[in-house]
Amino acid sequence: MLNIQDLCVNYEKNQVIKGISMEVKEGEIVTLIGANGAGKTTLLRTISGIKSSSSGSIEFMGNPIHKMPSHKIVDLGIGHIPEGRRVFPEMTVKENLEMGAYRRKDSKEMKKELDHIFELFPRLKERISQRAGTLSGGEQQMLAIGRAIMLRPKVYLFDEPSLGIAPLVIAEIAQMIKRLNEEEGATILLVEQNANLALKLSHRAYILETGKISLEGPSEELANDDRVQKIYLGYE
Amino acid sequence: MSEQIIQALINGLVSGSIYALMAVGFTLVFGIMHVINLAHGELYMLGGFSTFFMVSIYQINFFVALIATLIIIGVFGFFIEKIIFKPLRNASLLNTLLASIGLSLFISNLVLKLAGSDMRNIEFPFSGQSISILGTSVSVHRIVVLLLTAFLVCLLGWVIKYTKVGKALRATAQDTDAAALMGVNINLIYGIIFAISAGLAAVAGGLIGSLYVVDPSMGMMPGMKAFIIVILGGMGSVVGALLGALIFGYAETFTTLFLESSYQELVGFIILILVLLFKPSGLFGGVNTK
Amino acid sequence: MGKRKLSLLAGLMAFVLLVFTGCSGSSETGGKGGSGDGGDTIKIGIAVATSGAIAKTGQDSLAAQRVAVEEINESGGVKIGDKSYKFELVHYDTEGKAESATAATERLIQQDKVMAVIGASTSTETAAMIPIAERNKTPMLTAVAAAPVLTNMGANYFTSASSQTIMAIQKYVDGMKNFDYKKVAMLHFNDEFGMATAEAVNKAFAENDIEIVFQEAFAPTQHEFGTMLDKVAATDAEVIFAVAQIESFVNLLKQAKEKGIKIPVRDGAGGALEEMIKILPPEYTHGLVGGSRSGRVDAEDHKAFRAKFEEPELVNSFHYSGRDSIYLLKDAFERAGSATDKEKLQEAIRASNFDGLMGNYQFNEKGENSIKSITGIVLDGEIHYYEKDEDIPQDVIDSIR
């Protein structure tokens, strides 16, 4: 469904992504594990069209998207939940959710969608006219996910959903990701530093080291790999 | 004296509302695009000329001409963004500032070449008429200017608060990347912001051109004052720009009333210095486009 | 920032600079060909504002100077001994700022080696230029700036060829007396010219029992006069006497009308009545009395000169002054008998007895001229001219008062 070939990305003069090829199939949860600065966030930003690539290709359901502006990519059905939530702090919870459906034209469907999200995250309903900047980290993450669901994307790109969030809420969010995949059939590309969580959630995994894929395979297999255990899972 | 105070209250409001039209556009462009557009005064001047040509040469109704000016200069602003500021999208503030100075020189000299430095008079439909407010006769011209500006500011407020475009504007101002991830076409939004900014400045130019006269250098002082007002209100804050404009308009008017006209333009700069000394972020600094 | 963007920016700035300098620094020889007899030229420097808030007077006088140079060069040039020279103008924009004016003067004298400098648009600029001309012993004329402070500086190389404020003051007093005005509201510029004129007018009016019931200064860049006019309306002034250049004057007239102020506005700056009636419809200008600096514009010489312009109806006193300044120099060069001796040229300028469009130019030891100003009265959008000793008909006075 999402197919990346020999992708290179530069920041100023530094090459951050040095020829990555990877694939996400329909219905899969694929995770991308790597240390800080390995290029995970850059990869997601490049898929979404916020960052431009210097060479290589990205195909989404057969369409080359690496030269497309971000709003066209959104139209094709890629929803991106960015690192650090990035909710609109001065807008209300409701306005944030409405922004999620910015490209959708069917206002009746949107109303239904809103109800659906409030069902998933009852806490957001309580805070419907509160400014998003005043929410807690966990609530903001729920809002960010809800905002992405409003679009009904075919693929969700999650960037560090567990970062800076209380452990209890992390479990809730992990549950949500699983539900999206299992109940709604969404395809998911998950970027995580928390390799433990990521390998548990996902079907397949890629390990990214300084801009290159160093290891790939089914998540269970990788979880048992010595090197992965040492570096990413913290086993001695 | 009470009659003069009533007059001054209205005069200050008229000046303030014109400044508001200028400052709101200036602050929107800064708040969302992080561009200090020093060519803002030139767009105001173009608005004056556009209104003049339509009213005086083509005999178009003044109000129709104003709406046409809003659209024409707005579209012009859209293309200015595309041609001049888009290539500088990731450049530093100083670079876009320099580009805007260049643009300002280009527009003013172009108009000087094409139209000459002659002053021009825009005929206003109700010129010389007055109505009585609290026993004081007040010029209809000024009241109309006031109502039109108030209407435009409210319209802008409504657009920003309730329409889809307005939400996209706010989202872009608060987090450009996140807005792009929602599918907001950032390039289009930047163009629209510039168009709104240019259109409002142009209407201000047309309105003031009817109250004063139109000439190629008319934009210099208002452009500079808009900048001062935006610093006063807090760079990027729409509410700050509106309040700053009113404070500025009244400061000038009451300086003239109680002191002397020649201090009028001094007062603006004194306010600027005081703000920079005691509250460098401006009255509403940090509060973004709400 | 990428290289591409940097070069784009650089290109943009270069383009802007090109446009800008294209407007501000220009040198041209009037006339075509110019290779006829030797092609020797005499450079004349012009330093006036052609951009900025007060660009109008500078542009007008400069346009006329160019026409005059073209006329002279086409009709045989400046004849000194048995040689004939062509005039070449070098102009720099002073932008209405003293800094730019002094820089322009230095450049004209040092770099362009002009024989004489004509400038500038405001008295403030001109006052800053005079010491430079004096130091470099280069003759300097003004065709626009007119404050008495300029000739009072005691400079040997500065001569005023513009309408003198001193001559005008008496006319202002006569003007008030003709109309029997006793109470006046004076609004004036807060620059050198405005303050000096206000002071002189104050003194002269007091001596003639004309009371100034209200006086206020304002900046030349100011356009908003609403509150100031409200203050005037609260006094018992019979007339507004405004010492302001045309940019401000037109705004003042317009806002006075818009505010419904009934008392007439009178020009106290020798402004361009001809210009005002072109800008504003008759109902704004009716009854406007001004010191026309233009001389009798209905004379044949004036008409012939106006015909050289694309829009003859827009030619005003600054055009005439500008044109006269060039012919005055031609006359002085020919009498001096040298194209290179600045001292002789200066002596010849001061010894002028030259008939221009503005009138007869003769100078006293301070460099003040003797031009008599003429009163212009606007009635229904048309200017009627009256010489100094000519009586203004009673019915005209009645129709305005």
Characterise this structure.
The complex is a heterotrimer of chains A (236), B (290) and C (401). Chain A is an alpha/beta fold and 236 residues long. Chain A is 39% helix and 27% strand. Chain A has ten helices and ten strands. Chain A is globular. Chain B is an all-alpha fold and 290 residues long. Chain B has helices at 2-33, 40-57, 62-85, 93-115, 140-162, 164-174, 176-181, 186-211, 220-233, 238-258, 264-278; strands at residues 130-133, 136-139. Helices cover 73% and strands 3% of the residues of chain B. The longest helix of chain B is centred in the first third of the chain and has 32 residues, at 2-33. The relative contact order of chain B is 0.21. Chain B has a two-stranded antiparallel ribbon with strand order 1-2. Chain B has one domain. Residues 16-25 and 29-38 of chain C have low confidence and may be disordered. Helix content of chain C is 44%, strand content 20%. Chain C is an alpha/beta fold and 401 residues long. Chain C starts with a helix and ends with a helix. Chain C has helices at 3-24, 55-74, 98-111, 123-135, 148-151, 165-178, 192-207, 226-233, 246-258, 273-279, 282-285, 300-306, 317-336, 342-350, 394-400; strands spanning 25-29, 41-48, 78-80, 83-93, 116-119, 140-142, 158-160, 183-189, 211-218, 239-243, 265-267, 289-292, 354-355, 360-361, 374-379, 382-386. Classes of the chains: A alpha/beta (236), B mainly alpha (290), C alpha/beta (401).
Distance between the termini of chain A: 37 Å
Provide the low-confidence segments of chain B as ranges: none
CATH fold label of chain A: Rossmann fold
DSSP helix fraction of chain A: 25-40%
Write the layout of secondary structure elements.
The complex is a heterotrimer of chains A (236), B (290) and C (401).
Chain A: E1 2-11, E2 14-24, E3 29-34, H1 40-47, E4 55-60, E5 63-64, H2 70-76, E6 78-81, H3 93-100, H4 107-120, H5 122-126, H6 137-149, E7 155-159, H7 167-184, E8 187-192, H8 195-201, E9 204-209, E10 212-218, H9 219-223, H10 226-231
Parallel strand pairs in A: 3-8, 3-9, 6-7, 7-8
Antiparallel strand pairs in A: 1-2, 1-4, 4-5, 9-10
Helix pairs in contact in A: 3-6
Chain B: H1 2-33, H2 40-57, H3 62-85, H4 93-115, E1 130-133, E2 136-139, H5 140-162, H6 164-174, H7 176-181, H8 186-211, H9 220-233, H10 238-258, H11 264-278
Antiparallel strand pairs in B: 1-2
Helix pairs in contact in B: 1-5, 1-8, 1-9, 1-10, 2-3, 2-4, 2-8, 2-9, 3-8, 5-6, 5-8, 9-10, 9-11, 10-11
Chain C: H1 3-24, E1 25-29, E2 41-48, H2 55-74, E3 78-80, E4 83-93, H3 98-111, E5 116-119, H4 123-135, E6 140-142, H5 148-151, E7 158-160, H6 165-178, E8 183-189, H7 192-207, E9 211-218, H8 226-233, E10 239-243, H9 246-258, E11 265-267, H10 273-279, H11 282-285, E12 289-292, H12 300-306, H13 317-336, H14 342-350, E13 354-355, E14 360-361, E15 374-379, E16 382-386, H15 394-400
Parallel strand pairs in C: 2-4, 2-5, 5-6, 6-7, 8-9, 8-10, 10-11
Antiparallel strand pairs in C: 1-4, 3-4, 12-15, 13-14, 15-16
Helix pairs in contact in C: 2-13, 3-4, 6-7, 13-14
